[in-house]
Amino acid sequence: MTGTPVLAVHDVHVRFGGVRALDGVHLTVPPRRIVGLLGPNGAGKTTLFGVISGLLRPQQGRVHLAGRDVTGLPPARRSRAGLARTFQRLELFEHLTVREHLSLAWRMRRGRMRLFADLAGLTARASRDERARVDELLELFELGGVADQPATHLPLGTGRVVEVARAVATDPVVLLADEPFSGLSAEETRRLAAVFGRLRDEQGLAACIVEHDVETVLELADLVTVLDFGVVIADGTPVEVRGDPAVQAAYLGVAT
Amino acid sequence: MTPYLVGGLVVGSVYALAALGLILTYTSSRVFNFAQGALAFFCALTFRELVVEHGWPAVPAALVVVGLLAPLIGLALWAVLFRHLTHAPPHVRLVSTIGLWVAVPPVARILYGHEEIYDRTGLGPQPPHVYRPLGVVVDSDQLIVLGATVAIALGLVVMMRATPFGLAVRATVDAPVMAGVAGIDTRLVGAATWMIGTALAGASGVLLAPLRGYQETQFTFLLLGAFAAVVIARMHSLVAGVAGSLLIGLAQNLAQSSPFERVLVSVFGENSVLQRGLVPSIPFLLMLVFLVAYRGLQRERFTTDTRALRPSTTVSSEEAVGPGSRRRRALPLLVGVAVVLVLPEVLSGRWQAVVAKGLALAVAMLSYVVLTGQGGMISLCQITFAGIGGALTAQLATAWGWPVLPSIVVAALVVVPVGLLAALPSLRLGDLYLALATLAFAELVQNLFFQLERINNFDSGVRVPRPVLGPVNFGDDRAFYYLLVVAFLVVALLVLNLQRSTTGMALDALRSSEAAAATVGVGIVRAKLAAFGVSAFIAALGGGFYVTYARIAQPAQAFNALLGAVWLAVVVTWGVRSVGGALAAGLALAVLPQLFSEHLSGGWLEVPTVLFGLGAIALAREPRGVLVQVAERRRERRAARARRPAVAGVS
């Protein structure tokens, strides 16, 4: 493999009452790889996402972030340790411009707020590093045209891109994207998928993408994990997964 | 002991009626009616007017007021105000009913005259009959209260549990959208609950008057007791609301009982502040105890709004400022400052003093720009921070003999930890609990600290000297006026810096989405505490300058906790996002009452307060405040001008 995985989920069990939402699930995201997490409705994708981001405590199992056990940490500590995420429903900062979204994310990762410097007006301007990185991301995500617009009036597709850009601006160890393509047109989906690809190839981004859109994921991801009824039914490269009879059964309802 | 138990149950019953109305309307519309006590006051005065001035018999008068007038008021207010608030941004939801709370009592006094009322007209005979069933002493007024409360509470329970209307209300409370889909007219339910809620306010008012008299303060105490009960009920449980009300009534009355009073006197001394201030403080002490306890229990209960409804209207309601308009936004401020600088040349000495007072208040108003404008939090104790700042300035400068200007700054620094302490128990509990906790804090400081002899000096206040700085003697009013302008500009600069800084962005982010802010690494409690600390500091500075200008510190009068509601209403009306709005608000608070008192008399003196309240109510329609509206109109005109030559060119 290519070194310590940036995200490793070992043998996670989650039960809600009598329902086994997750039953011994493993998931690995190697560095510089995009992992697609697929599964029909109710397969346990959202539950697994909750476990990884710290919103849900598993009854059993561990979560490692870049080799460090984060199973007991609350969500905020995990995000500071480098776990970034996007939301399925848009959660933009409606009072900030697109550029400010990225600036805030960049600054939060690199140091806490310094209140007295803030009051003295020392932090109103971006540092050269910050400006360079934010400009780079704006260009990469094709957001230059709306950089100084408030997030309030952005169309849904652009809003999704801003969410991803904001998460990337924190320079995450690993990015969790919760259905980043939902609600996007085919053209928008293609462009956002291309951005994910470039981020991985040019900047070494590692990501785990939960998605309904099977074709997009199979094209974009390096590795795919398929869940059904809380169990991993397939795990491998897109080509392997595409041919897997269990996957076809889960998606097409064919008896195996 | 028994008379105190009976008295406590009776007062608790009146609290319970008001609290039931609050819970009912809050659960059905997510709007917390700060005006519940004011509406009770209005209904009680109307009842008295009918009986005393128009000779109506008491029972029909009460039935007309509680059964007809109060529901009609509720319906009218629902139609023009509450209906629009359910989907308004949280701070507008809170501030609008605070505006109503500010506006209603003066309207009542304008209508019914504002002479002191000494009679205690009620439903029962005057003086009340006294009965002794089983050796317990009860008078007729108390029996009426107990009987009416039991009847109304039972009626409510039956209505909620056993009628189709009750079912519709409960369905709407649990899931408004689904209730609508299921064919329930949720607007009808909303209107009906507001009618019932206002009727309950009216009932509590008519029942309270014979017990406590017709002074407005008594109705404020009613309101505050009901608030505490509603906090105990966590805003939703009718049964816990009643239980909490009775608990507060009993605690207040037992604290007045002679055995307990003997203990207090022996501990604190005869007629000490703690002995006098304890009884009115009991609701707040209980409220704070429960807030702290609830914080330990399931905190997610409060943070997640069960409705999870965030319609798109909230997004556009507080528009961000477009590119390039930042510079233009500074224009009203520059104009304001220019006017303020020229004013001493044209104004008489008396009006210069009024404007100077307004400038000191404007410094305090800047604290809202940080806390409410940037942080999105509603505090009802900014005036208390200002009061503490003023009181400590007076102590340092007079009792300790410090120079005045350092005293103002040090006093403001001391207020910072006080501010953090006031906010800490409820920061995680959400907007409404923060507003109520800050109100509780303000009342506690009002009752227990501002009344200390050292601070209040038997209501005559503590003298504060004017500063002398080298050759400049600020004992001269004109010189001090310019010092105030400089102080305002310096603090305004700090606020503007903060708005554009990392903390400012983080607070903006928090206001939109706490979840997303947390995922990019914003420490939520830390950022909110930073805003609270800075705003407490600024408010205290304003208070320090205010008392130095006035040359006397009388915090119990000048910084009365209830005046804090007026401050909030005014600053939010002018625009709580901008420094210019704070300037306008401070000046309005000083100038308008003076203007009315110079040229008009009688009931007209109340008009500024009504205007202040109405301004906040108008926010339901335009949440961004007056200055933003003015700026928008300017922008539209500019845009129209820009279009015109283009059109001409085409033709």
What is the CATH C level class of chain A, in words?
Alpha Beta
Largest sheet composition of chain A: 6 strands, mixed
CATH fold title of chain A: Rossmann fold
User: What portion of the residues of chain B fall into strands of 2 or more residues?
Assistant: under 5%
**Separation of the first and last Cα atoms of chain A:** 32 Å
Q: Give the name of the CATH architecture of chain A.
A: 3-Layer(aba) Sandwich
Number of domains of chain B: 2
Shape of chain B: globular
Q: Overall mean pLDDT score of chain B?
A: 83
Architecture of the largest domain in chain B, CATH level 2? Orthogonal Bundle
Low-confidence stretches of chain A: none
The SSE string of chain A, one letter per element, is: EEEHEEHEHHHHEHEHEEHH
The side-by-side strand order for the widest beta sheet of chain A comes to 6-7-8-3-9-10
Count of individual beta strands of chain B: 6
Care to count the β-strands of chain A? 10
User: Would you tell me the structural class of the helices and strands of chain B?
Assistant: mainly alpha
List keywords for this structure.
heterodimer; A: 256 residues; alpha/beta; Rossmann fold; 6-stranded mixed β-sheet; 4-stranded antiparallel β-sheet; 10 helices; B: 651 residues; mainly alpha; ABC transporter involved in vitamin B12 uptake, BtuC; two-stranded antiparallel ribbon; two-stranded antiparallel sheet; 29 helices; 6 strands; 2% strand
Account of the protein in words:
The complex is a heterodimer of chains A (256) and B (651). Chain A is α/β, with parallel strands linked by helices. Chain A contains 10 helices and 10 strands. Chain A has a single domain, classed as 3-Layer(aba) Sandwich (Rossmann fold). A 6-stranded mixed sheet of chain A has the order 6-7-8-3-9-10, sandwiched between helices. In chain A, a hairpin with a 2-residue loop joins strand 4 and strand 5. Chain B has 2 domains: 271 residues, Orthogonal Bundle (ABC transporter involved in vitamin B12 uptake, BtuC), CATH 1.10.3470; 309 residues, ABC transporter involved in vitamin B12 uptake, BtuC (Orthogonal Bundle). In chain B, 76% of the residues lie in helices and 2% in strands. Chain B has 29 helices and 6 strands. In chain B, the strands form 3 sheets. Chain B has a two-stranded antiparallel sheet. Chain B has a two-stranded antiparallel sheet with strand order 3-6. In chain B, strand 1 and strand 2 form a beta hairpin. In chain B, helix 6 packs across helix 8, helix 10 runs antiparallel to helix 12 and helix 26 crosses helix 27. The termini of chain B are far apart. About 4% of the residues of chain B have low confidence. The chains are: A alpha/beta (256), B mainly alpha (651). Chains A and B meet through helix 2, helix 3, helix 4 and helix 6 of A and helix 21, helix 22, helix 23 and helix 24 of B.
